[in-house]
Protein: Ligand-gated ion channel family protein
Organism: Zunongwangia atlantica 22II14-10F7
Amino acid sequence: MKYYLLLLFLVFSLHIYAQESQDSIKSTPKTYKIGIQLTPPFVTQNPNGTYDGLSIKSWNLVNESLDYTFEYKEYTTLTALLNAVESGEVDFSINPITVTDSRMQRMDFSQPYFISHTGVAKRKESQIINILKNLWSWEFISAILALLGVIFIFGFLVWIFERKKNAEEFGGGKGKGLIEGFWWSAVTMTTVGYGDKSPRTTGGRIIGLIWMFMAIIIISSLTASIASSLTVKSINDEINGIADLNRFKVGTVNSSSAAELLDLYGINSEKLEAEEEGIELLKNNEIDLLVYDEPILRYEIEKMNAAKSIEVLKQTLKKDYYSYSFPKNSDLVDQIDPALVRMLKRMEWENLIQEYK
């Protein structure tokens, strides 16, 4: 009987201990791991080590109603961050991750909290240097040669008819006569009309009449061709779609939605670890274009004091939707989404967006 009572006491004690342990576990809130990567202006770090930025502030507003206990886990590259989310190494990420078809197969996403665009950065072009370059371009040289060729042909034809009967104006030897014919043809074409030379033979006058009318058409088209070759064509004018990027040396950030877009359209691009590296390559003329998220490009260009030499084109390649990212089939999506939607309707969020624009 004594042993039976002792056994009951032990069982009861274990039950009480297990219950207290379970209550203790329930009373201790889970600490969620939130993956981040420094991505100004969305995720930045203060001198004291704390994190700031638009995405951080968005989460602070969302968490006011959730009251989660959390800690940030920083990753140095976008690739590492995406892999951490996909593998469940972190519970979710609040970084500005663009929702794409391929990413939706790897992970889940919340409602978008920011709408952006994929932008293109390039070096600013010098108008004077481009004009000087165009003066030595084949288009300009070929247009000039074509103009001189047409002038010479009509000068030669009028010389054929005038060299004997109008020797004082078109004679004086073959070389000098051809030069005189060339001079007359040029003066007639430009309608300067010095009157120092004029055809007197019937054949010469017919050539002259034909040349007068033809010169109006020819000089117009050739002038347009020359003007076109001298016109400074900026990269802005040459990019009307993604396919046009094939003519340039392009850089982008590895594993970004911009990289996915370029690969989808078969655009060869240099994959970089961060946008700062791409801006340096632009400054050093090692790439022609840097394709990445427009607001991040603009922020980094200002931050690196590169606005004098680098600009972001007005043309954008596609619209981007930034969302929180979660491991596939995470229960947290259904918990966080309602709070995120409520946050998007708050005036504080609208003010934050205006502040970061």
